[in-house]
Amino acid sequence: MCKHLIDRLASGSELSHDEYLTLIDRRSEIRDYAAALARDIRQQYYGNRIFIRGLIEFTNYCKNNCYYCGIRAANAKIDRYRLTPEEIVTCADNGYELGFRTVVLQGGEDPYYTDEILADIVSSIKKKHPDSAITLSLGERSRQSYRILREAGADRYLLRHETADKTHYETLHPDSMSFEHRMQCIRELKDLGYQVGVGFMVGSPGQTAEHLARELLFLKQLNPHMVGIGPFIPHQDTPLRDEPGGTAELTTFLLSLIRLTLPRVLLPATTALGTIDAMGREKGIEAGANVLMPNLSPVGVRKKYMLYDNKICTGEEAAQCITCLKNRVRKTGCEIVTARGDYAE
Length: 345
Ligand code: SAH
Hints:
The protein is an alpha/beta fold. The chain has one domain: TIM Barrel (Alpha-Beta Barrel). The protein is about 45% helix and about 10% strand. The protein is built from 14 helices and 9 strands. The strands form 2 sheets. A 6-stranded parallel β-sheet has the order 2-3-4-5-6-7. It has a 3-stranded parallel β-sheet with strand order 8-1-9. Strand 3, helix 5 and strand 4 form a beta-alpha-beta unit. Helix 4 packs parallel to helix 5.
């Protein structure tokens, strides 16, 4: 048994690459134990509170061609859309009414949204709802752009690193993108005072247990405020369409290891996890996650923001989503709250 490794993590010790690897390889024996300790740690810092973030997917235009992603530029089959600044602010207003105190503006890398347009959107939302946090998830931009948006009122930024291994990164992205630039963006966001979220897909093509051990070491070293992980799910109109997807079993175990490694981290049970397993989000919470990110996008565009096949919650309106989630969360012994849900310093 390798319970002692879990105990060491829970008491704040660092593990080596080989120790993480042992845990990953022998997870079937210790997953329940790891989850129980991960829940205890979450309880210690955040109680039984689950924070919600309203996700506004405001554009599915993207200039990039990530091999895994359904909204890649080369996908000629999707119907592209952009929300106007007014529509985006209205979505944020609706979210506020529903109790959301964080909105996440996410999109493909769409040059249409200049710094000026985005700064206006951010500052109008902030002006109307000064008690809300604004999270951006707009991909790689210049330091100058990140600075302008931060000054306009953005509080947090999600930029998954996708993989901590340069060679692996290069198998998932075309030559026009670089591992170094992605990492540079993450450093700049940190420097500018954003609460930063990174993350990776579980079971992305070519990912090994060694890679995952490296991911955990990377996270420990970076110590980000948020970590988003979800299973890789193939999308039919991408080069990786025939690759196997990630599993809920491995994703939830990694959620527990991340909670144990970074006790205060804000950790979502992602929509991707809910997509591959009808109980995925509940299982994520039971593994130590403490964030949910329901969709606030207008119902008419939801099916167009298909990063992967069969994405859930693309039909119902936000109000329905939130009622459904409240009931689901209650069954795990936790409670959805409307607080901003900042990092527990
Ligand atoms: N353009 C932004 C937002 C990307 S979409 C950016 O670059 O950060 C948000 C996340 O969805 C990505 O970071 C990626 O990890 C995930 N994603 C994309 N395609 C996916 C797929 N096929 N399966 C699972 N997750 C995927």
